[in-house]
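COMPLEX REQUEST
Ligand: L6WJOLX4
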Amino acid sequence: MAALGALRSCWAPARLLTGSAHHSNRLVLCQQTSIKRHFSNNKILVELDEATGVAVMKMKNPPVNSLSLDFLTEFSITLEKLEMDRGCRGLILTSASPKIFSAGLDIMEMCGKSAEHYGEFWRAVQEMWLKLYGSNMVTIAAINGSSPAGGCLMALCCDYRIMADNPKYAIGLNETQLGIVAPFWFKDTMSNVVGNRVTEQALQLGQMFPAPEALKFGLVDQLVPEEKVQSTAASVMAQWLTVPDHARQITKSMMRKQTTDKLVNNREADIKNFVSFITRDSIQKSLQVYMERLRQRKQ
Ligand SMILES: CCCCC/C=C\C/C=C\CCC/C=C/C(=O)SCCNC(=O)CCNC(=O)[C@H](O)C(C)(C)COP(=O)(O)OP(=O)(O)OC[C@H]1O[C@@H](n2cnc3c(N)ncnc32)[C@H](O)[C@@H]1OP(=O)(O)O
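STATUS: Structure written out below.
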């Protein structure tokens, strides 16, 4: 969480990038150029470049990067490690396999399981959101494929979104299409980016927007050719990192705290609400029908 007291002081890298550092600091930077640290596990590839202070996090949960309980747990642990690492100032979030950024929450985690499981799963979804939306790091989503529902939420949590310029890739909070409802904190995250009116319509209709449409109303910030998504993310990140960390972090926290506090103060009630919603027979039926439709589409 972006608690003000926990702000990290990362002045040296900021000064290096703005060019006001002492000569000996520059030497350190040169010497560090090729040092990369790895935080990978079997679901997420992470490489932290010590010279730039930027970590690239590639989701790798085949076939579609669905957000399973295991994946979400690994994700939050990894994010926590990076957050605590004084050498890490920026995070680029992307997919290890182009075409799909993330298929969103793993629907199988919400079907035919116990109430205890649903509670545990939802707590993990909350944790991912609190950590990513509340991150002190500069976060950039390099969206190299489709990004429905929970995948869109992850991208919306970031400070800036760069998407591959391919109309086949779509992004949006499509929950109503599955017969489920995006909770208030999904809604707030989108509303904070694109405004209330657009969010209201998009959420009711469960709209998925092809990349060019998403750009038009600011759901993503920039479209670039597919092969330039990563390099553009790196250069946008370099610009963001020229701003002194403490000032940017306080500003980010000021903009987002009201939204995160709403969940922090209501976590247990939100879990209870989710469990009672998802265990309804009608909702279970809707999810099964949706999965069946996905399978049939494939055939
Ligand atoms: C009363 C007030 C209540 C208030 C609210 C209270 C509580 C809130 C309640 C609920 C909130 C839940 C919020 C949910 C958020 C979500 O994220 S739901 C997930 C939504 N995701 C989707 O709709 C994506 C569906 N998938 C696709 O559209 C496509 O699969 C694709 C991602 C575009 C990829 O297409 P393609 O490359 O063609 O791959 P396939 O379709 O063939 O898929 C490959 C296999 O992957 C399986 N799969 C796809 N997506 C998911 C998924 N999200 N979860 C699990 N599995 C998935 C797909 O079935 C294929 O499996 P098989 O190979 O057939 O076994």
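REMARKS: The longest strand covers residues 44-49. The two ends are 44 Å apart (CA to CA).
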